[in-house]
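[09:14] KT: can someone run the structure on this one? pasting the chain below
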Amino acid sequence: MKYNEIKISKDETHFIYKGKKLFNKDFKQVLKFHSEGLAPVCDETGWYHINLGGNEVYKKRYNRIFGFYFERATVVEKDKWFHINRQGKRTSKTNFAWCGNYQENICSVRDFNNKYFHIDNYGKEIYTEKYRYVGDFKDGFAVVKIENRLCKHINKQGKDLNEKLFIDLGIFHKSYAIAKDEKGWFHIDKNGNCLYNERYSLIEPFYNGFALVETFENKKLIINETGKEIIEI
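[09:31] RB: done, structure tokens below
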């Protein structure tokens, strides 16, 4: 039985495999199985993880838990957030006010002073700076919001990618990211340079060379990577 063949029931109370209820059991809530072969479930005792056999992985119960990413899962015990490994053991002694999910073996977290930063697989900060907000890493880069509320990209060492600041910013997708300045949204390359001069009210990342955008006149357009308008939707 493969993890991705297991589905969740519409009411999210049990698992389904080949059209039949799996484990012959209902829970208060279930989340999907991930590649590690483990899934979060909640019953009258609390939240915990089960394996592909439907058996609990550990005895501990939590107020809330999430799925495994890169061999780590976020769990919540009262107001303390931290990560556990596949055996249910804590990966560090540090508690956080919030934890994200690991991406590229790095995780975004918030401390009890409401400052955001990134940690490695063992809960160690990967740089010394603290931010108003940080996003997940993708393809080696993440978006962070600094104290003046502007955004920038950083690498896995916490260094600026291109020393460019924007009002808002997205992660890189196939070499390009969405960005916003005082005139509106547009696309940039990894040097922080805009691909075209036009600005839009709404914008999406490029999908196989084309992106959906919306003008300030509420027109929806498809543009290519040079900013040329291809069609109006």
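[09:33] KT: thanks! Residues 222 and 231 are 5 Å apart (CA to CA).
[09:34] RB: yep, looked fine to me
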